[in-house]
Specification:
- Chain B: Residues 125-254 form the PX domain.
- Chain B: GO terms for molecular function: phosphatidylinositol binding.
- Chain B: This is Sorting nexin-2.
- The complex is a heterodimer of chains A (409) and B (504).
- Chain A has 409 residues and is mainly alpha-helical.
- Chain A has helices at 12-18, 73-85, 104-115, 122-156, 164-171, 183-205, 211-261, 266-336, 340-408; strands at residues 35-44, 49-57, 66-71.
- Chain A has 2 domains: 33-104 and 141-164, Phox-like domain (PX Domain, 2-Layer Sandwich); 201-408, Arfaptin homology (AH) domain/BAR domain (Substrate Binding Domain Of Dnak, Chain:A, Domain 2), CATH 1.20.1270.60.
- Chain A contains 9 helices and 3 strands, in the order H-E-E-E-H-H-H-H-H-H-H-H.
- Chain A has a 3-stranded antiparallel beta sheet.
- In chain A, strand 1 (35-44) and strand 2 form a beta hairpin.
- In chain A, helix 3 packs antiparallel against helix 4 and helix 6 (183-205) packs across helix 8 (266-336).
- The relative contact order of chain A is 0.10.
- Chain B is mostly helical.
- Chain B folds into 2 domains: 126-267, 2-Layer Sandwich (PX Domain), CATH 3.30.1520.10; 288-503, Up-down Bundle (Substrate Binding Domain Of Dnak, Chain:A, Domain 2).
- Chain B is 62% helix and 6% strand.
- Chain B has a 3-stranded antiparallel beta sheet.
- Chain B is elongated.
- The chains are: A mainly alpha (409), B mainly alpha (504).
- The interface between A and B is large, with 58 and 57 residues.
């Protein structure tokens, strides 16, 4: 898959890990031949990203076996929201929506660099430009990965994959004309969330008869908070790492200048050390990038999924409350001998809804755990392997340079 | 400008020099068998680089650089009479004025720098000084830190092989002050003393026994040690009686004039400003391309080292941040592991937390290496180069002084010529006397200039050798610290990997 983004060059390094199969770095999904979705291409324009969604399917629902459409971020959100609002899907963990592509910071840095071009040497400028471009590229790849994971999760889900909106999203090759939510709708969402969290407190207080769900509730509430904290702390740690790598970059440049200026023995010495630091700082930057991918992104993803799981539990609790209320209403109606049939129907509906949700929720939560464990295992193993690879690389560079320096003195 | 005339008079009575009265070892490279040098330790013009030299008694000490043999400051410090400064041999064309001087041991019988260097071959430099055991003495704002200065050496210059004394920071400053006043203006690169820090010291005095004040004391201790080692590595400074006294004598009179906020301190600052202005107005006809080249070289070096220093300081800062953030992440990962309900994953997360905790300590150690090895090396050299630039400035001032004397002589000669046609025999005689005096002064000026030029050449060569050695040694040490860090990282991650794989 080719990533074209306004002419920025792709370093070979970056693609090696990511371009095997679906970029489902955070989720270990079974790929199913009946429906395979991926993002085959992406284009970054001024302030939007255009994703090329590529589908391969043997399902009869689609006109062709293989086709592609171009979608933007808002359309993904529309799809996600349509799932959330669909009562039929109340019993499922809705795959979390991908975060909005955010190139603002990176773009700002590139702009500042352009403005400050006069104040630095040509080498410094070129170097910094390359780094910022690499950063931009990394953010770009991440956003592509996150949008892809969302689609893959939907495609892997036995029920959601059959959703009509999903098929329209995949196949309809015109613009879906979904507009982002306007202010009023955003406000409505906000209040819905407020009500939900107030309710959430209410509902959480009700002890569940079912041990499984009681345990899950306690577990998810705590887990979600701790993942949030770990995600924030890992971000900070990785940022410090990047800063240190940047410093080493500047040190390498200074040493290079010193090397070219010095008239003593030191000139060769400085040049050699400068060369060493150039290489080690590339490795340090890679370490930070890999930690970001394997650790920070993993945590961020499970922050969102654990929220989606919590939402499921909330919906089930709401259904339970509705069921209990319907029971009370039925008793009342029977006591007064008024609207009994109506109350009975209502009660049955609520009971049915509650049981349906409970049943699918149980399976969803079990699947969630399986996915989570698999994803953590995969990423932690890969993290350790990469850390080792980089440390060994660094060590080799340092030792070889030391050998040369000591030999010459 | 500066009262030059006053010094002309003083110069005659207060010069001292070294003469070899005993037979020289046959290492003299000069044909003259009685090499001696007439040196005046006064130079006029404002102070050199050193911030700390002054005589509390004499308010104009800064202005005239007069280090009178009769000054109370010297009397207190020296056991026998005036101590000579070692000076190099004069070029054969100058006038030699022999006089008597004393000596400390018999090392001072050598007057030639060359001889001293070759002497080094015989009694090679073998000395190690350590500054240790910082101890708080006293309470409140009068409290101070006392450091133990231990010298280990096999050199015959010293009475014993190992000895230690207790010194406080102002003692070090006092030592530097004395050395600077004796040697800077004749072209020796005197290593600068560590910087004062009112804030840092106040915290220590006030008794805050915390991380940052401990770090401050350690930084200072390390800086003092480096300062002493640099000073004694200089073959001329090593033999200075003030240095020897500093290292050996159990009692050292307190150097009061080093206080930052004294009147002497304020005068220092005023003169420093005057100095800067003065420097700009000296336009020297540089006949020697070597000096111009070297000055440019040190200018460039200064700029680059400062830049590098700033980057390394930034690295130290970010590395410390990384350490803190890694520790926080470790705690967070442990919490996550606790709440994870899948047993194997929970265990793996706890292991991850442990690994990250070890790594945070690793980052902390690396940050210390970044600082104490790399950053401090650069900081020291930035200050050293300021001293180097200072001696170049002194050469300019010496030249200026010589030129001024020449111009004055010219004027006097013209005046005398005019007087020839008047009938004032007394005035004529006076003019002739003055001219004679000035001629001597001009010759002295030229000699001084040539001397300082020669000294600087030698000093710069020695300095560059040291610089190459220092940078190579320390940077190699620094790289070795980086190697160690990577080796540890490999160890930690290798231990973790099977734990991660064990998740099922």
């Amino acid at each position: 898959p080719r990533l074209c983004n306004g002419g920025l060059d792709d370093g070979p390094d970056f693609l090696s890990e990511e371009d095997r199969g679906p970029r489902a770095v955070n989720v270990d999904l079974q790929t199913d031949a009946t429906l395979q979705v991926d993002i085959s291409d992406a284009l970054s324009e001024r302030d939007k990203v255009k994703f090329t969604v590529h589908t391969k399917s043997t399902l009869p629902n689609f006109k062709q076996n293989e086709f592609s459409v171009v979608r933007q971020h808002e359309e993904f959100i529309w799809l996600h929201d349509s799932f959330v609002e669909n009562e039929d899907y109340a019993g499922y963990i809705i795959p979390p929506a991908p975060p909005r592509p955010d190139f603002d910071a990176s773009r700002e840095k590139l702009q500042k660099l352009g403005e400050g071009e006069g104040s630095m040497t040509k080498e410094e400028f070129t170097k910094m430009k390359q780094e910022l471009e690499a950063e931009y590229l990394a953010i770009f790849k991440k956003t592509v990965a996150m949008h892809e994971v969302f689609l893959c999760r939907v495609a892997a889900h036995p029920v959601l994959r059959k959703d009509l909106n999903f098929h329209v999203f995949l196949e309809y090759n015109q613009d879906l004309s979904v507009r982002g939510k306007n202010k009023k709708e955003k406000l409505e969402d906000f209040f819905k969330n407020v009500v939900k969290s107030a309710d959430g407190v209410l509902v959480a207080g009700v002890k569940d008869v079912d041990d499984f769900f009681e345990h899950e509730k306690t577990f998810l509430l705590e887990y979600h908070n701790r993942v949030k904290d770990a995600s924030a702390k890992s971000d900070r740690m990785i940022r410090s790492h990047k800063n240190a790598a940047d410093d080493i970059n500047r040190i390498a440049s200074s040493l290079y200048t010193l090397g070219t200026q010095d008239s003593t023995d030191l000139c060769k010495f400085f040049l050699k050390v400068s060369e060493l630091f150039e290489k080690t700082r590339k490795i340090e930057a890679r370490v930070a990038a890999d930690e970001d991918l394997k650790l920070a992104d993993l945590l961020k993803y499970y922050l969102r999924e654990s929220q989606a799981a919590k939402d499921l539990l909330y919906r089930r609790s709401r259904a339970l409350v509705d069921y209990e209320n319907a029971n009370k209403a039925l008793d009342k109606a029977r006591a007064k001998n008024r609207d009994v049939l109506q109350a009975e129907t209502s009660q049955q509906l609520c009971c049915h809804k509650f049981e349906k949700i409970s049943e699918s929720a149980k399976q969803e939560l079990i699947d969630f755990k399986t996915r989570r464990v698999a994803a953590f295992r995969k990423n932690l193993v890969e993290l350790a392997e990469l850390e080792l690879k980089h440390a060994k690389g660094n060590l080799q560079l340092l030792q070889s340079c030391l050998g040369i320096l000591k030999g010459n003195t | 400008m500066f009262p030059q005339h006053r010094n002309v008079v003083v110069a005659q009575t207060q010069t001292f020099c070294v003469i070899s009265l005993e037979s020289n070892p046959q290492t003299s490279s000069e044909p003259a068998s009685l090499p001696a040098e007439d040196i005046s330790t006064n130079s006029n013009g404002p102070k050199q680089d050193s911030l700390f030299d002054d005589d509390p008694e004499d308010l104009f000490a800064e202005a005239t650089e007069e280090v009178s043999l009769d000054s109370p400051e010297r009397d207190v410090l020296l056991s026998d009479g005036p101590s000579p400064a070692i000076t190099p041999i004069t070029p054969p064309t100058s006038v030699i004025t022999p006089c008597i001087g004393h000596a400390h041991d018999d090392m001072f019988t050598h007057s030639s720098f060359d001889e001293i260097e070759e002497e080094e071959g015989g009694d090679s430099f073998d000395m190690h000084i350590s500054v240790s055991d910082p101890e708080k003495v006293g309470d409140g704002m009068n409290a101070y830190m006392a450091y133990k200065v231990t010298t280990k050496t096999s050199m015959s210059l010293f009475k014993r092989n190992e000895f230690s004394v207790k010194r406080r920071f102002s003692d070090f400053l006092g030592l530097h002050s004395k050395l600077a006043s004796k040697y800077l203006h004749i072209g020796y690169i005197v290593p600068p003393a560590p910087e004062k820090s009112i804030v840092g010291m106040t915290k220590v005095k006030v008794g805050k026994e915390d991380q940052s004040s401990n770090e401050f004391v350690e930084k200072r201790r390390s800086a003092l040690e480096r300062y002493l080692m640099r000073t004694v590595k200089h073959p001329v400074l090593l033999k200075d009686p003030d240095v020897l006294q500093f290292l050996e004598s159990s009692d050292l009179p307190r150097a009061v004039s080093t206080q930052a906020l004294s009147s002497a301190g304020l005068l220092r600052m005023v003169n420093k400003a005057a100095d800067a202005v003065n420097k700009m107005t000296i336009k020297m006809n540089e006949s020697d391309a070597w000096f111009e080249e070297k000055q440019q070289h040190f200018e460039n070096l200064d700029v680059q080292l400062r830049k590098l220093h700033a980057s390394v300081e930034s690295l130290v800062c970010h590395r410390k941040e990384l350490s803190v953030n890694t520790a926080q992440f470790a705690k967070s990962a442990a919490m996550l592991g606790n709440s994870e309900d899948h047993t194997a994953l929970s265990r793996a997360l706890s292991q991850l937390a442990e690994v990250e905790e070890k790594i945070d300590q690793l980052h902390q150690d690396q940050a210390n290496a970044d600082f104490y090895l790399f950053s401090e090396l650069l900081g020291d050299y930035v200050r050293l180069i300021t001293a180097v630039k200072g001696v170049f400035d002194h050469r300019m001032k010496t030249w200026q002084k010589w030129q001024d004397s020449q111009m004055l002589l010219q004027k006097k000669r013209e005046a005398e010529a005019k007087l020839q046609f008047t009938n004032k025999p007394d005035k004529l005689q006076q003019a002739k006397d003055e001219i004679k005096e000035l001629e001597g002064k001009v010759q002295q000026g030229e000699r001084d200039f040539e001397q300082i030029s020669k000294t600087i050449r030698k000093e710069v060569s020695r300095f560059e050798k040291e610089r190459v050695k220092d940078f190579k040694t320390i940077i190699i040490k620094y790289l070795e610290s980086l190697v160690q860090t990577q080796q540890q990282l490999i160890k930690y991650w290798e231990a973790f990997l099977p734990e991660a794989k064990a998740i099922s």
